[in-house]
């Protein structure tokens, strides 16, 4: 009886989140070859007016510019980053990197969470206080909201992979500076290349700027698909969305985030 009440409570909270987000969809589950073999394999069958909706997509290709790093980053570290062939090597290289001052004030490195075998990769901005304590991205209040966002399209941390542009908490949870982003971007590039996702979602303005090289605010660029071209020639469909921390401050923007989530689930279906 208690288990049924707990399940009903969880479903009620999920439904409230979906209503707040402006959801108009119902969800069914069936097998999906897209999700990782060891994760729950689910496919979403949407019985809504959005079934045949085509989301905006641009053929614009975004390339990472390596010229900055050749001039401003220690060449030995660039070589070390390039030689990282797995996530453990990359994590060790980041732990040994001392040129970012944020390392001096943070408790620990916050590397990643979720399933590294997933084909969906989410990139946030930087750790907050709770992330700094636990060593996992998105584990505080904003992380709880992110989990609800993922659950609203039938995803969870078993079938997505999550990291940040910056692995150390900025003092006072301030926004990372451009210099800090530039310093850590080579690690981010290699992180993406090692995970080799089929879909990228940037979460927050700093993440979108780092990955997509955009100018202006996140509200101008969210919800539009772009192709991120990596140094190995792989092109990854990428979409920007709003950060959960921003949504908690501006709940009226949840409907925009819901549109981005619908676009993401549509992209998953079409892979």
Estimate the helix proportion, in percent.
40-55%
Classified by CATH, the class is Alpha Beta
Domain count: the total is 1
What proportion of the residues form beta strands (DSSP E)? 5-15%
Total number of helical segments?
12
Which strand order do you get reading across the main beta sheet? 3-8-9-7-5-6-4
CATH superfamily: Uracil-DNA glycosylase-like domain
What is the H-and-E element order? HEEEHHHHEEHHEHEHHEEHH
From the structure provided, what is the oligomeric state, counting identical versus distinct chains? single chain
Overall 3D form: globular
Unreliable runs: 25-60, 67-71
CATH architecture: 3-Layer(aba) Sandwich
Radius of gyration in whole Å, from Cα?
A: 19 Å
User: How would you state the average pLDDT, rounded?
Assistant: 82
Strand segment tally: 9
Structural commentary:
With about 270 residues, the chain is α/β, with parallel strands linked by helices. It has a single domain (about 55-270), classed as 3-Layer(aba) Sandwich (Uracil-DNA Glycosylase, subunit E), CATH 3.40.470. The protein contains 12 helices and 9 strands. It has a 7-stranded mixed β-sheet, with helices on both faces. A two-stranded antiparallel sheet has the order 1-2. A hairpin with a 5-residue loop joins strand 8 and strand 9. It is globular, with a radius of gyration of 19 Å. The model is unreliable at about 25-60 and about 65-70 (pLDDT under 50).
């Amino acid at each position: 009886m208690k288990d049924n009440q707990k399940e009903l409570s969880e479903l009620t909270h999920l439904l409230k989140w979906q209503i707040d987000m402006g959801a108009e969809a119902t969800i069914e589950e069936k097998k999906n070859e897209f999700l990782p073999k060891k994760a729950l394999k689910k496919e979403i069958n949407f019985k809504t007016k959005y079934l045949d909706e085509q989301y905006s997509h641009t053929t614009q290709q975004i390339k990472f510019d390596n010229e900055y790093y050749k001039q401003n980053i220690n060449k030995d570290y660039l070589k070390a980053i390039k030689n990282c062939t797995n996530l453990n090597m990359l994590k060790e290289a980041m732990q040994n990197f001392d040129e970012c001052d944020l390392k001096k004030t943070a408790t620990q490195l916050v590397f990643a969470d979720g399933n590294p075998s997933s084909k969906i990769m989410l990139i946030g901005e930087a750790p907050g206080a709770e992330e700094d304590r636990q060593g996992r991205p998105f584990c505080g209040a904003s992380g709880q909201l992110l989990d609800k966002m993922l659950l609203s399209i039938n995803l969870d941390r078993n079938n997505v992979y999550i990291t940040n542009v910056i692995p150390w908490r900025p003092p006072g949870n301030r926004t990372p500076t451009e210099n800090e982003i530039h310093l850590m971007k080579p690690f981010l590039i290699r992180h993406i290349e090692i995970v080799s996702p089929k879909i990228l979602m940037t979460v927050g303005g700093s993440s979108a700027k780092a990955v997509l090289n955009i100018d202006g605010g996140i509200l101008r660029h969210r919800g539009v698909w772009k192709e991120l071209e990596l140094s190995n020639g792989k092109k990854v469909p990428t979409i920007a969305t709003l950060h959960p921390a921003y949504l908690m401050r501006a709940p009226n923007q949840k409907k925009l985030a819901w549109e981005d989530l619908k676009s993401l689930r549509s992209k998953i279906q079409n892979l």
